[in-house]
Amino acid sequence: MMRGVTAHLPSTTPAVIRLTRYTRTELSEILGDGPDPFGVSWAGLTWLDKEEHFGIKQDGRLVAHTGLVTVPLSIGSLETRAVGFGGVAVAPDLRGQGLARIVMTAALEHACTIGPQYGLLFCLPHLLPLYERLGWQQLHEDVVVEQPGDTTMVMPLETMWTPLRDGAQWPTGPVRLRSLPM
């Protein structure tokens, strides 16, 4: 009998909530107090704060998060906007239970109502399969991102995109995020 296995699975899908705030304190609640919670400090990037936040709480503890922000973007000669996804986090002790899928799906559903036709995120290479399972596609072009002091740099992380409208296709041409990365 598989009683031991099913005893640890949630009986219902956890509810995703809109968070009224998301600060270093909330991030620490999920990932702890380490100096580099996302493992990307080596990239030397300054990141854009997210404007909207979605989370999952279990037993009063925040255990998962996804943030959104609308960003200006140019792809070839097209000037457009994208909904940037970032700050995706799941408590280490709860990974593998589908919480990233649940919180990302809720954020994605909301992103589809904002207006832009593209979702955009940056991630470490080992996370590509996770986002691919969620319907994201890897973007193989270099993406130039803005940084403080009127400087730019090529994004050293992997870039992924997803359509936010039926039939949306990623255009061809050089890609420049006209803001800090999210």
N-to-C span? 46 Å
Low-confidence stretches: 1-9
How many DSSP H or I helices?
A: 4
Largest sheet: 10 strands, mixed
Helical content stands at 10-25%
- Principal-axis shape equals globular
- Classify the secondary structure makeup into a structural class: alpha+beta
How confident is the prediction overall: mean pLDDT?
Answer: 93
Radius of gyration: 17 Å
DSSP, total strands:
10
The proportion of strand residues reads 35-45%
Order of helices and strands: HEHEEEHEHEEEEE
Tell me what the structure shows:
The protein is an alpha+beta fold. Helix content is 17%, strand content 36%. β2 and β3 form a beta hairpin. The radius of gyration is 17 Å and the shape is globular. The model is unreliable at 1-9 (pLDDT under 50).
Index terms:
182 residues; alpha+beta; ten-stranded mixed sheet; 4 helices; disordered N terminus
Task: List the SSEs and their pairings.
Elements: H1 3-6, E1 16-18, H2 24-31, E2 52-58, E3 61-75, E4 78-90, H3 99-111, E5 118-123, H4 128-133, E6 137-139, E7 143-147, E8 151-154, E9 158-163, E10 175-177
Parallel strand pairs: 4-5, 7-10
Antiparallel strand pairs: 1-2, 2-3, 3-4, 3-10, 5-9, 6-9, 7-8
Quickly describe the structure.
The protein has 182 residues and is α+β, with helices and mostly antiparallel strands. Helix content is 17%, strand content 36%.
